[in-house]
Amino acid sequence: MSLRISLAVVLCFMAQSKNPRTYGYKVVSAYPHDPGAFTQGLVFHDGYLYEGTGMHGKSGVRKVELKTGKVVQEAPLQAEYFGEGITLWKDKLIQLTWQTRIGFVYDLKTFRLLDSFVYRTEGWGLTHDGKRLILSDGTSVLYFLDPATFKEIGQMTVRDRGAPVSNLNELEYVKGEIWANVWQSERIARIAPSTGQVIGWINLKGLLTEHSQPVDVLNGIAYDAKQDRVFVTGKWWPKLFEIRVD
After folding, report:
1. Which helix (H) or strand (E) covers residue 164, if one does?
2. Is the model's pLDDT at 20 over the cut of 90?
3. What pLDDT digit, counting tens, does each position of 194-216 carry?
4. Is 54 a residue whose pLDDT tops 60?
5. Which of 37, 56, 80, 85 is deepest in the core (most CB within 10 A)?
6. Which residues of 130-156 are buried (b: 16+ CB within 10 A; e: fewer)?
7. DSSP run (H or E) holding 14
8. CATH H-level, domain 2-245: superfamily
9. What is the rounded CA–CA span in Å between residue 18 and residue 13?
10. How does residue 91 score in pLDDT terms, banded at 50, 70 and 90?
11. 0.85 cut: is pTM over it?
12. CA distances for 118 relative to 5, 95, 114, angstroms
């Protein structure tokens, strides 16, 4: 028994000590993006981007044309709410709010508000793995929610070589990995959903080099599974980029 326990400890230590690989990127295309959008969540579906925006009085969800950046449909939030991450679940669009700890559920086609729910943390990023909703709250912890009831069903701490990785923000599920913007950085963490270990970093330094108005941090990851495309942008950014990870 002691030998089995020791072996498990060694294997765990080896997994946590392994240096995650750092990836670069190449820009495939650049598209217009509304510089007034404080991007908090981003999803690609059936040729359109769905975006959740923040700031009191300016928060909401919107459907956006990829090539033009034109907003073709939107639903604003009341000014008391600060919008955060979004995800699509079946025929519904789900949106978090920041400190009010209330989420909203919309009909994907009409943007009609269908329901609301509560959660016990702040809301930052949101995605899903096909079975569970995955929520970030700005710490190193990711929370798993039942998409039918929105009850918390688990959590895990994200670590890089044993050290917790905090400031986890916008999330996207990409090819069996959880990708997370790290707030106030130019990096995306690639996270193993079974262990919480960071298995890679994507360094997006220098992505936005030209802008004529104030911009905020990198935030927003969307994955087009049908065409294997990755899109990224930021808060108040005038451009959205399709990138290829090297």
Report:
1. strand 163-164
2. yes
3. 999 999 999 999 999 877 678 99
4. yes
5. 85
6. eebbbbbbbbbbbbbbebeebeeeeeb
7. helix 2-17
8. TolB, C-terminal domain (2.120.10.30)
9. 9
10. very high
11. yes
12. 40, 11, 14
